[in-house]
């Protein structure tokens, strides 16, 4: 969830010494012992946690921020099982509208092409794009294809027009693709924006949770370059500030980092946060959209809510538009999709 409340979590009870090491392993919870640590932690979109014995030293008599008490006795924590403690601190934090972050794992995401589910889609081994589109799931259909990029439906679409741009070859992020591919990528962005703008007449926004060279996002993401394209998901200044985002001239500046990147429109200003100390919530842009449009809890998470009917509807709407598209290059790059979609929808 998006953390909107700034405060401190006080850890009390007989089991506090046992569970503090587990709590410290949550990405967005930082134990502190000095008052001057509070503001930097808030700035990094995280929440301080304090042992009750350090409370006065940290907060003083006149601390006026939110104080949330996590009492280990009241929480009925009887053993040191990480799963139990994580479940209870997560539930507690969500009740007070704070994101604790995921439990840190020592392994990082596999950044090899072998076994990559996106490589299976983009390469579609032993099949042409047309035959792939005839038999695959709707969410795996290749809508648009250039020499080095494809466009597919977005996983778990929250709204019409949700797409993803992916490299055919296995690059970890947009920042890491070769410079020679950037002009081609820019054209793909422009074509996607042209299609969606004509279909929906709304702002087109691009997002990426980019992976560093060591797959440093851990288990948060599929480690194959994929740009999320969403309608009308413009980040306000509130969120730019919340995530400590900065303007950049070129995404390649962050090729050695994990990052969260955003821009509105193909020619819009590019914003990024690539500071490893700043916590970015899982699927942050989806969370923001879901919150602002009153989705039910956890519906932002494509792993839990697939929105398969909306995926099929999106494919149908794209097919209806693209079969009459007048742009010659877009027609050529979407021909395999239009031909396959025609067969699939006529068969139903």
Plain-language structure description:
It contains 11 helices and 12 strands. With 348 residues, it is of the alpha+beta class. It has 2 domains: 7-95, no CATH class; 117-347, 2-Layer Sandwich (HIT family, subunit A), CATH 3.30.428.10. The strands form 2 sheets. The protein has an 8-stranded antiparallel β-sheet with strand order 5-6-7-9-8-11-12-10. It has a 4-stranded parallel β-sheet with strand order 2-3-1-4. A hairpin with a 5-residue loop joins β11 (259-264) and β12 (270-273). α6 runs parallel beside α11 (328-347) and α10 (308-322) packs across α11. Mean pLDDT is 89; it is low at 216-220.
Give short descriptive properties of this protein.
348 residues; alpha+beta; HIT family, subunit A; 2 domains; eight-stranded antiparallel beta sheet; 11 helices; 17% strand
* Silhouette: elongated
Q: What is CATH's topology name of the largest domain?
A: HIT family, subunit A
- Please give the domain count: 2
User: What low-confidence regions span 5 or more consecutive residues with pLDDT below 50?
Assistant: 216-220
Instruction: Tell me the total number of β-strands.
Output: 12
**CATH structural architecture of the largest domain:** 2-Layer Sandwich
- What composes the largest sheet? 8 strands, antiparallel
Output the structural class.
alpha+beta
Q: At the fourth CATH level, what is the homologous superfamily of the largest domain?
A: HIT-like
Query: H/E order of the elements?
Result: EHEHEHEHHHEEEHEEHEEEHHH
The span between the termini is 39 Å
Physical arrangement of strands within the biggest beta sheet: 5-6-7-9-8-11-12-10
The percent range for strand residues is: 15-25%
Mean pLDDT: 89
> Could you name the CATH class of the largest domain?
Alpha Beta
Radius of gyration: 22 Å
């Amino acid at each position: 969830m998006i953390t909107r409340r700034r405060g401190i979590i006080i850890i009390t009870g007989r089991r506090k010494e046992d569970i503090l090491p587990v709590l410290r392993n949550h990405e967005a919870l930082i134990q502190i012992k000095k008052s001057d640590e509070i503001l930097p932690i808030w700035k990094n979109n995280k929440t301080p946690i304090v042992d009750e014995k350090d409370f006065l030293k940290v907060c003083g008599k006149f601390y006026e921020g939110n104080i949330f008490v996590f009492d280990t006795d009241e929480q009925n924590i009887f053993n040191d099982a990480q799963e139990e403690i994580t479940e209870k601190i997560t539930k507690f934090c969500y009740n007070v509208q704070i994101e604790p972050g995921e439990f840190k794992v020592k392994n990082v995401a596999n950044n090899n092409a072998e076994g990559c589910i996106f490589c299976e889609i983009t390469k579609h081994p032993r099949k042409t794009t047309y035959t792939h589109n005839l038999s695959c799931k709707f969410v795996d259909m290749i809508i648009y294809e250039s020499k080095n990029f494809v466009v597919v439906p977005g996983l778990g679409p929250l709204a019409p027009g949700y797409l993803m741009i992916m490299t055919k070859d296995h690059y970890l992020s947009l920042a890491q693709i070769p410079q020679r591919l950037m002009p081609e990528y820019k054209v793909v962005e422009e074509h996607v924006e042209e299609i969606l703008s004509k279909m929906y007449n709304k702002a087109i926004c691009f997002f990426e949770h980019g992976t560093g060279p060591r797959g440093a996002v851990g288990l948060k993401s599929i480690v194959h370059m994929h740009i999320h394209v969403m309608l009308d998901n413009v980040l306000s200044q509130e969120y730019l500030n919340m995530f400590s985002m900065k303007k950049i001239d070129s995404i390649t500046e962050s090729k050695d980092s994990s990052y969260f990147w955003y821009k509105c429109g193909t020619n819009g200003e590019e914003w990024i946060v690539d500071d490893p100390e700043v916590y970015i919530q899982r699927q942050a842009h989806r969370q923001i959209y879901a919150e602002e449009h009153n989705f039910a809890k956890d519906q932002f998470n494509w792993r839990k809510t697939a929105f398969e009917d909306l995926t099929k509807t999106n494919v149908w709407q794209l097919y209806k538009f693209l079969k009459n598209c007048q742009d010659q290059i877009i027609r050529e790059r979407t021909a395999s999709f239009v031909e396959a979609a025609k067969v699939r929808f006529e068969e139903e």
